[in-house]
Amino acid sequence: MSATDPANELAALPFEKAMAELEEIVTRLEKGSVTLEDSILIYERGEALRKHCERLLQSAEMRIEKITLGADGAPTGVTPLDADD
């Protein structure tokens, strides 16, 4: 096993790769072809991936809302999506 910190590795994972890995985990669990111990481990990884994807989606949603709506709910001017970077 590598010395890479799982939290840092997960934080750097793009949404598309995280979703692909999550889908692979779901498929493996549905097939039931893994041991109980492996099932627990990959389930835990799947849960971490789900939370990571949820955070990424919430972040994207907040950025879009910030760009498109002002405090009064009226549309605002157009600014780039990466304006916070």
TrEMBL record:
Reported function: Bidirectionally degrades single-stranded DNA into large acid-insoluble oligonucleotides, which are then degraded further into small acid-soluble oligonucleotides.
Regions annotated as coiled coil: none
Membrane-spanning intervals of the chain: none
GO molecular function, one term: exodeoxyribonuclease VII activity
NCBIfam families for the chain: PRK00977.1-3, xseB
Compartments, as annotated in UniProt: Cytoplasm
Keywords attached to this entry: Cytoplasm, Exonuclease, Hydrolase, Nuclease
Catalytic activity: Exonucleolytic cleavage in either 5'- to 3'- or 3'- to 5'-direction to yield nucleoside 5'-phosphates
Keyword Metal-binding tagged: no
Subunit structure: Heterooligomer composed of large and small subunits.
Entry GO CC: cytosol; exodeoxyribonuclease VII complex
One GO process term, biological-process aspect: DNA catabolic process
Keyword Nuclease applies: yes
Family note: Belongs to the XseB family.
Gene: xseB
Top EC class for this record: hydrolase
Its EC number(s): 3.1.11.6
A Pfam family recorded for this sequence: Exonuc_VII_S
Name of the featured protein: Exodeoxyribonuclease 7 small subunit
